[in-house]
Fold:
Amino acid sequence: MGNSTRVTEFILTGLSEDPRLQLILFVVFFAIYAITLMGNVGMIVLIRTSPQLHTPMYFFLTSLSFLDTCYSTTVTPNFLSNLLKEKKSISFASCFTQLYFYGLFATTESYLLAVMAYDRYVAICNPLLYFITMSRRKCVQLIAVAYIAGIINTSVHTVAATRLSFCGPNIIKSFYCEAPPLFALSCSDVSLNYLLVFILVGFNLIATSMTIFTSYAYILVTILKIHSSASRKKAFSTCTSHLMVITIFYGGLSFMYVQPSSRQNLYLDQMASVFYVVVTPMLNPLIYSIRNQEVRRILGRKFHVQHF
Structure:
């Protein structure tokens, strides 16, 4: 370490070194980011301006749209900027800032999806007590718990990462500052960092996935007990959008962090990262607007009023 030079910036490999392909990628991902912002901000505005959507489910959906906006903004603008640069660099401080907020919003979203599953459980399994159980105060408390979990998780990882020394090389094999590729560049012992990832990420995955699984197990049992097929279809339709979002979110997360083999193929790993970090926040508002009849009806009514 005596003759080593301290790293002051990192180089991100991006997705391609071909300038022409980079320009195409910029156009594609700029469009995705624009749709993400319009979709999520539009969903927030729609819910806030529609009194009939002032229910616990849509309160959580507003929080999800806010998280997706922040989550995407943590990575995408810097990613788009680097697509137009020859040298795709990020400063040491900016890298750790991105690492912190990426972890914060990703972890918070995983807990929020669990909270939304619990909300659907109460709505379907205990409908008469729904608005009492899911009071405004209770909803705010559940959102606060999700954010606290996110803050604790990302703070532990970021503080542990700041104790590492980086003396070269400084090339991160990703298009953003992600923990495992960053650990690979350290010239310090990273065993504690990997242990913390294993413990905390494992705990978060188990806690949220078990909450989701248990909630939907009770929901399924309740729906199967309903005699009317129309009522069963209506009850299940309120869960399909959430189930699709959960499948996409945890599918991408599992591919990135649970399967070690994905780390052996840089191309597959980067494609999974792009889908998980950039594309998923765009899909969520589209799924809820397309699959949700109430949202579609209100959108149609507002469109009709504006144009006719």
Q: What stands out?
A: The chain has ten helices and three strands. The chain has a mean pLDDT of 84. The beta strands are 9-12, 89-91, 171-172.
